[in-house]
Structures are given as structure tokens and as C-alpha cells.
Amino acid sequence: MADWDVRVGDRVVVAPGISCQRCPHCLRYGMYCQRRKLYGLGSAGHGIHGGLSDTVELLPDTRLFRVPDRLPAQRAVFIEPVACGVRAMHTASLTVGPLSGRRALIVGFGGIGLAVATVAAYAGAHVEICELDGLRQQVAERLGFPVATPSQVEPGSYDLAVECAGVPAAFAGAVRAVRPGGTVIEMGNFADAGPGEVPVAEICQRDIRVAGVSETRDADFRVAVDVVAHSPIDLAAAIGTVHRFQDLDAPEVLFTKWDVLKQVVCFD
């Protein structure tokens, strides 16, 4: 367990990834497990089913992180995606440097885009959103983020662009958006949505740094709990539909039903 002070009855968030701790990657890097298992992410391989239930059997080496008792559930549900955002911003800071005062463009404003924008803003970056969908644009603006469509984004004007749309074509737009020497973080295409344009000459000629993000560390979750607890952004306002588990005839409809941002299942 990641937080050894977790006790029966505590509120916790479960990290989706389970590493074997024995493969060469685990032993050498402490990450990138060759036999990694993931709760609820079958599209990425080695998925573990059973998350949509009122009880879940947790496998050995599952990472648990305590959720403060006073943190409302409507905010706590964002801890895991925000941990992904923390990892992305940590990766970006290795090349961009401190994020305070930097211009950051978040491409796509779904749940992950919201999480990354929240972390970047918490770190002091000037965050802007690139989004095509009108309803998501409205949510972003209501939460205080400036919004532009792809055609309105000024090329070469951002220190950092994070691709969160999960659309392969969005990557090229993120590359064009950053300044010479800027950084692009790719995290939206976690599931394979097919090939996309990679402007390799532009990456080379303008000295663009490109990094992917797919795993979270224990430290990312601990920072995420703090961000979710203290960020001024009204995360709960980004919840679209709240489903009562008892009323779901077929929980798999959650994966075919489109919503503006985040759907939530409650068990009470």
C-alpha cells in the first residue's frame, strides 16, 4: 500500500496501476512495469474488471491513498485524473522549468484536460484552453479559463502545450502552438485511436521537446490530494451526470453515453 497509515473505515482513492515489483523495468526504473495491471482500463491491456460495484477486491500491491474526511466526494472523484495532471506538469517542468508565469495551452477540455488545467493553474501558469465543443467551451469559461478554437490559437506563442483531446490530429496542433524551445506533453492518446500527423521537421527545426505521460507515482497522488482540496477551481461544477448505481440496469452504458465532462456513479 502506498499510504501505510490506511485503516479499515478510511476513505481512500485507488491508483489504477499495479506493478509487479520484480520485472527488469520495476527493478531498474521503479516504473514502466512489463506486467503492469490496470483497474478498469481494459483498452490498455491487462485490465482488471470489477470497479463498477459497491465492493471491490483489491489485489496485492494495490496503491491506496487516504482522502481527507472533510473533502467532499464531488471533489474527491477528481483525485486520480488530477494525479495524472501532476505527473504531466512534473514532466513539463523538467524542460520548461518552474511553471509560474508560463503560458500553457491545454488542447481538449474533457476530464483529463480539466485535471491538467487545474494543476497548471495551481502551479501558477497562465492557462488557456483549446476546445471545439461549444458546451465544453462554456464549462471552461465558467471555471475561469480563457478558451480558443484551434483556428484561433496563435502559433508559436506558448511555453507548454498538453494534448488531452485523445484525437491523433490534435498533436500536430499542439506542436504548432508552442514557441521555439517549447514543450509538448502527449497524454490524450492513452488508448490507440490510430495514426496521426507528426510534424518531425518542425519538432527538429524549432527544438521542440516532446514527452509522453502514462503512469503516476505515489508522490503524484499525494500532491493531487492537496490540489483537489485547495484549488479555487469549482471542480464539482464540471460533473455532468450523477448516476445512482442501484438505478443502472447496465453499467456499461456509461461508456457509450456522451456527457460534457465527467460522469459519476454513487452508491448511496
Written account of the structure:
This protein is of the alpha/beta class. The chain has two domains: 66 residues, no CATH class; 198 residues, NAD(P)-binding Rossmann-like Domain (Rossmann fold), CATH 3.40.50.720. A six-stranded parallel sheet has the order 8-7-6-9-10-11, sandwiched between helices. Strands 2-3-4 form a three-stranded mixed sheet, with no helix packed on it. A two-stranded antiparallel sheet has the order 1-5. α3 packs across α8. The mean pLDDT is 90.
Write the layout of secondary structure elements.
Layout: E1 12-14, E2 17-18, H1 24-29, E3 37-39, E4 47-48, E5 64-66, H2 73-76, H3 79-96, E6 103-107, H4 111-122, E7 126-130, H5 134-142, E8 147-148, E9 158-163, H6 169-177, E10 178-186, H7 200-205, E11 209-212, H8 218-230, E12 239-244, E13 262-266
Helix pairs in contact: 3-4, 3-8
Summed up, what is this model?
The protein has 268 residues and is of the alpha/beta class. It has eight helices and 13 strands.
Main sheet: strands, sense, barrel:
6 strands, parallel
The coarse silhouette is globular
What is the typical, i.e. mean, pLDDT? 90
Helices and strands, in order, run as EEHEEEHHEHEHEEHEHEHEE
Supply Rg: 19 Å
What count of structural domains?
Answer: 2
Q: Residue share in helices?
A: 25-40%
End-to-end separation in angstroms reads 26 Å
Low-confidence stretches: none
Number of DSSP helices?
A: 8
Q: What is the CATH class of the largest domain? A: Alpha Beta
Please identify which CATH superfamily of the largest domain we are dealing with: NAD(P)-binding Rossmann-like Domain
Total beta-strand segments:
13
- The CATH level-2 architecture of the largest domain is identified as 3-Layer(aba) Sandwich
Strand fraction: 15-25%
Find the CATH topology of the largest domain.
Answer: Rossmann fold
The class by helix and strand makeup works out as alpha/beta
